Prior knowledge:
Elements: H1 3-9, H2 22-26, E1 28-35, E2 38-45, H3 46-59, H4 63-74, H5 81-103, H6 106-113, E3 120-124, E4 129-132, H7 134-144, E5 157-160, H8 164-172, E6 177-186, E7 189-199, E8 207-212
Antiparallel strand pairs: 1-2, 3-4, 3-8, 5-6, 6-7, 7-8
Helix pairs in contact: 3-4, 3-5, 4-5
Protein name: Ribbon-helix-helix domain-containing protein
Organism: Paradevosia shaoguanensis
Amino acid sequence: xxxxxxxxxxxxxxxxxxxxxxxxxxxxxxxxxxxxxxxxxxxxxxxxxxxxxxxxxxxxxxxxxxxxxxxxxxxxxxxxxxxxxxxxxxxxxxxxxxxxxxxxxxxxxxxxxxxxxxxxxxxxxxxxxxxxxxxxxxxxxxxxxxxxxxxxxxxxxxxxxxxxxxxxxxxxxxxxxxxxxxxxxxxxxxxxxxxxxxxxxxxxxxxxxxxxxx
Length: 214
């Protein structure tokens, strides 16, 4: 394949919006788009062209192909081509925003962190166990000595060797993870070991997720 052919198949490089000031992003740019047997001239602000380029790159197609697909979907009744493209780009950004908001919820993050195949727990600033995973319940049964016993986190007392306020303070200062000792007490039986803890976003965190490592 020669250099010319390579250049024709190269996908557009996304341009970060923050690289331009507001005036630059508002600057209208003219493009000619082929949709089927029809050529359309489209004048659109630079920011929207950038957003469309990023969407196309994520889908593995050229921006011109994405624009053609959007206009074909809109149909012949959509006379204002620029408005169609603006609405499409804005809708895609809104869908991404909603997805990111949902993934930033503490409950989602806790469930994700506790998917690890080790005993894991979530504990809040009030030193209460908020959530545990099945491996942690199994560990509690081992500690109690009764593998058939139905156990919930409500009947378990757990303490960490480092005060929780100090742990949260270290995370606020940028510490990504730390290890500390723990003590589990259930039915007058105890287990001591080591745990690795991480903070649950958003910051400042009100919850920790810990992994039993010994």
